[in-house]
Amino acid sequence: MSVTVRWLLHDSPFIAMLLLAFVGLAFRLPVAYWVILTPIFGVISIVAGWRHFETRQARLALVTSLALNWGALIIAIYLLYNSGVRGVLNANANSLAMMILLALGTFVAGVQARVWQICAVGVALFLAVPALGWLDQSPLLLTAVTLVIIALGGLTWWVSQGQRDDVKP
């Protein structure tokens, strides 16, 4: 098995965490999505951190602390979507607030579970909030960056094709 495949298999839960959060943000999914996603992140955190705790008591403490962490996050989501607060924030602000809550919960869970990959997912989610807010305000810039990336990819492909033709006898 290649190194890339092994890496993908080992880190697939953390990649899935990132993708699930970005899908929820990109498509402005309803609160039910975030409420379902929160326990999924909790289970991934517990499973990933399980091997770092050897005694039954330490594992029970891990499960308890992570359950409290993710339970508090679900309560925060409820308060954010409560009828009294919902009218204050628009849909974009709600999605960004949801991502901030998820980022914070993920980072804290990574620290508690002693899993640096989960902390990295939390940091990536934190960094995505201002980036997505900025890009949301700049569709022309986003289009220009996309076109530059496509042009660079095409140029790279064209140069690599030219080098292959030079190698052939």
Topology:
Elements: H1 3-26, H2 31-49, H3 56-81, H4 83-86, H5 91-113, H6 116-137, H7 139-167
Helix pairs in contact: 1-2, 1-6, 2-3, 2-5, 3-5, 5-6
Written overview of the protein:
The model has no long low-confidence stretch (mean pLDDT 84). The protein folds into two domains: 135 residues, no CATH class; 32 residues. With 169 residues, the protein is an all-alpha fold. The chain is 87% helix and 0% strand.
Quickly describe the structure.
By secondary structure, this protein is mainly alpha-helical. It is 87% helix and 0% strand.
What Rg is obtained from the alpha carbons, in whole angstroms?
A: 21 Å
Helix fraction?
over 70%
- Tell me the structural class: mainly alpha
Number of domains: 2
Helix-strand pattern: HHHHHHH
Morphology: flat
What does the main sheet amount to?
none
Q: Please, what is the average pLDDT?
A: 84
